[in-house]
Amino acid sequence: ESILKTEKLVKIYGEASGDSSTTAVDGVNLEINKGEFLAIMGPSGSGKTTLLHLLGGIDKPTSGEVFINGEPISEMNGDELAVFRRKELGLVFQEFNLLDSLTVRENILIPMILEKKPIEEMEKKVKELATLFGITNILDKYTYHVSGGQMQRTAVSRALVNKPSILLADEPTGNLDSKSSTTIMECFEKVVEELQTTVLVVTHDVFAASYCKKVIFIKDGGIHSSIVRKGDRKQF
Ligand code: ADP
Ligand code: ADP
């Protein structure tokens, strides 16, 4: 069952015919199925972030199409895309992107408040995710009082509260030390195995990528190659 699919996806920055144009994504055909846990790796400037932004409907392709649960997103208007992003997509960033005037609990609640969910449901969801990711003891702390690893686990919780079909993470371990990176990748494993949610991680971090079941290598805006993990963790 395909969650996310692209067809001949192209993104050119600048005037397509101009001297200063850059082809950041160059005809990518990608299919991501339900329950997959994959990493996209590639050198700096190879188009990883641009591809992730196109997949998330944050940026528009120059040509080609992105299908989410079979629906072409180019046919959605702005409102439909916003609803889709809030409901079907969870986003996690390198910089965490939390609101530091709010507590951990409040940060996690935001997407559910926007969806006008009942209070009991919101409380239940926060408890469930905080327990899964080991952050129940910091729920009432302000985010500037918690560690980087705890901030990222808060961000992962926030990304999952509306039960998206896919979680997209851009360099999620980029600001974390090795121990916190391990914890975050273990959290993503739980997301895949216990919440049955698809996870796509864009990363430079070979150690982080080793947790994923499939790694796709991007070079010059195109898919260069991929590897699939055969057995237990780290057995490629
Ligand atoms: P990566 O995430 O792999 O480092 P990016 O997607 O950020 O790659 O960038 C791919 C290419 O597109 C690079 O050459 C980069 O300079 C260029 N690029 C990215 N964003 C823009 C932009 N907003 N305007 C112009 N060029 C861009
Ligand atoms: P990342 O570290 O995630 O690859 P970058 O540092 O490549 O991100 O890019 C950060 C921001 O700058 C992005 O919004 C990207 O679109 C923009 N950007 C990257 N390269 C260029 C460029 N050559 N011209 C204009 N904007 C760019």
Automatic annotation (TrEMBL):
List residues of the ABC transporter domain.
Answer: 4-236
Identify the domain of life: Bacteria
GO terms for molecular function, please?
ATP binding
Q: Which PROSITE patterns match?
A: ABC_TRANSPORTER_2
Query: Per its UniProt record, what Pfam families does this chain match?
Result: ABC_tran
Family stated for the protein in its record:
Belongs to the ABC transporter superfamily.
Q: Return the protein name.
A: ABC transporter ATP-binding protein YxdL
